[in-house]
Amino acid sequence: MIFKNKLQNIQNIANEYPKPFKVLMAASFIDNVGGALLFPFFSLYITAKFGVGMTTVGIIFGLFSAANIVGNTLGGALADRWGRKIMIIFGLIASAFTSLVMGFANEIQVFFVAAVFVGLFASVGHPAQQAMVADLLPERQHAEGYGVQRVVSNLAVVIGPAIGGLMAVRSYLLLFITDAVTSLIMAGIVLLTIAETKPQLQEHEERETLLQTFGGYRFALRDKIFMVFIFASMLATLVYMQMNTTLAVYLRDSHGIPPQGYGYLLSMNAALVVLFQFSITRRLRHRSPLVMMTVGTLLYAIGFGMYGIVNHYSFFILAMVIITTGEMIVVPVSQALVAKLSPERMRGRYMAVAGLAWTVPSTVGPLLAGLIMDYSDPRWVWYASFILGVISAAMYLALHRFSSRQASPEPTAGG
């Protein structure tokens, strides 16, 4: 009876969302499984195959992320001009083929070039997908919709790293091939089943020129509240990204934890998101989003900081639980805030600028962490993460206080 009631509750929640949104989430799940197979083991693959240190890994991640910035910028503007659907499909197909090039590369120089193209094409459809989620849902469901997106992506991570660890023992090339295949499957689903969601021009409105479309970025960059929020998010991301770039090598080299042990931590992280993300998002929808961002980022600081002072696997698990709790607060709330702050016809461009909160830290973060890992005490990666997390949290709190003094009330996380 309890199980039957649970299923009925899930069905009732699912019925609250339109069919195109559910189809998009299903397609995203398939694609995310492929990415979850590959990305967590990226650092291990590079160091093992090419015999390089973490500084070189950091440079590769930096090139990948610099290309991400370019792809994100192009993708955001073109999603507003040409449409969400076409940019999602193009990005998936292009990234699939460039991922295969990376998998077959046998020279580090070729891998460097492939990383640039993968970074460019992997990000070109991201603003379009984020904008499509906001297009498909009413404003009051934005935070919950992004929460569902997090559940979907983390459900994939529950499956991905565990399978990826087994596949990596046999052949890393299988990871690249699987990632490419899942991207092509998602592209096909979007092509055949989802209609374009870009807002249509009204009779009195004129179509922007291509120059005007890209020039529209200046409105987002001049939005002071928005840009302070993005800068604080960059610091938070600089902390969070260590989970998928530095942590695997740190646990292996400093504590003798095998790849499977790291994979279990990621799978636990994803499982917690799957189980609790939606209920947490619903509970927080009437709370101040910037206060919630403050709390979530402080949890980041505590969890990542713990990796520098603990040395037993049980404490590594506890640290991941703390980090995951922060993640379940920060991610959907931040995405809902971006959707709230963005004008409807500039949603792709605002989403692209918001993407800088990930791509800029990804450009410099792995390199800085690699330098620390190779030439200093590796624990300073985690000490620095604690410091940056606290600074980010303080910025969110200051932004909340500033917003509270303004005439218009601060938007709630749920719209």
Query: Count of DSSP E strands?
Result: 0
Sheet having the most strands: none
Order of helices and strands, N to C? Answer: HHHHHHHHHHHHHHHHHHHH
* CATH top level class name: Mainly Alpha
Give the rounded overall mean pLDDT: 84
Q: Tally the helices: what do you get?
A: 20
Instruction: Please give the domain count.
Output: 1
What's the shape?
globular
Task: Describe it.
The protein has helices at 2-14, 19-38, 42-50, 54-81, 84-104, 108-124, 126-136, 142-170, 173-193, 210-215, 217-221, 224-240, 242-245, 247-255, 259-284, 289-306, 313-341, 347-354, 356-375, 380-404. It starts with a helix and ends in an 11-residue tail after the last helix. It contains 20 helices and no strands. With 415 residues, the chain is mainly α. Helix 7 (126-136) packs across helix 18, helix 12 packs antiparallel against helix 20 (380-404) and helix 16 (289-306) packs antiparallel against helix 17. Helix content is 81%, strand content 0%. It has one domain (16-197, 210-404): MFS general substrate transporter like domains (Growth Hormone, Chain: A, Up-down Bundle), CATH 1.20.1250.20.
